[in-house]
Write a structure and sequence with these properties.
The protein is of the alpha+beta class. Helix content is 16%, strand content 39%.
Length: 185
């Protein structure tokens, strides 16, 4: 089992295009007792289980993430982490978590039922950060509890953990939508 710990201190990272993001530091604690930042950690091999321990201020909490999000994190770390795969981004990550067929259509309503953001989210809920004028979404993330969201930052980026407030600021998003996958026949 791999333990991911979020630091209580935020750090600034950059994607491949040089865009900067505010995220919580994620430390990998592996089975050999090594602690290393996720971005510096090499490839994962046959990873099956991940546990996330979140630090926010003086509070520490083991997050009980839903099975779909857990499996998506495991799959991401096994297949995409540290590979800068330009075919994979935040939208791919949420699609994978909710078993939405991978596609390159940016019309969210074709694949997702969308509502205005509700303050009470359940673990595993998806949010899209949107520009009001163009209705174009900037970012997609999954709520994992404790006010935190997991996502992939940028095309070919790594997995990160952040708050909704920081994601809205980082992406200049004016609107937050919640989404559930449509049952496509």
């Amino acid at each position: 089992m791999l333990i991911l710990k979020t630091g209580s201190v935020k750090q600034t990272i950059s994607d491949l295009d040089g865009k900067k993001f505010n995220v919580y530091q994620v430390i990998v604690c592996d089975e050999k007792g090594r602690n290393q930042e996720l971005q510096d950690y090499g490839n994962f091999v046959n990873l099956r289980k991940v546990e996330i321990i979140a630090h926010r201020g003086r509070s520490v909490k083991k997050l009980n993430i839903d099975l779909n999000t857990h499996q998506s994190i495991v799959d991401f770390l096994n297949y995409y982490h540290a590979k800068q795969d330009l075919s994979f981004d935040c939208y791919s990550f949420v699609n994978m978590a909710h078993e939405v067929k991978q596609h390159h259509k940016m019309i969210l309503e074709d694949f997702w039922d969308i509502k205005l953001y509700q303050k009470r989210l359940k673990i595993g809920d998806v949010v899209f950060l949107v520009n009001k004028k163009s209705n174009y979404f900037y970012h997609a993330a999954i709520y994992i509890g404790f006010g935190l969201y997991v996502s992939v930052y940028g095309v070919g980026g790594d997995m990160e953990i952040s708050t909704l407030k920081d994601m809205k600021k980082d992406f200049g998003a004016e609107l937050v939508l919640t989404a559930t996958p449509k049952k496509i026949r």
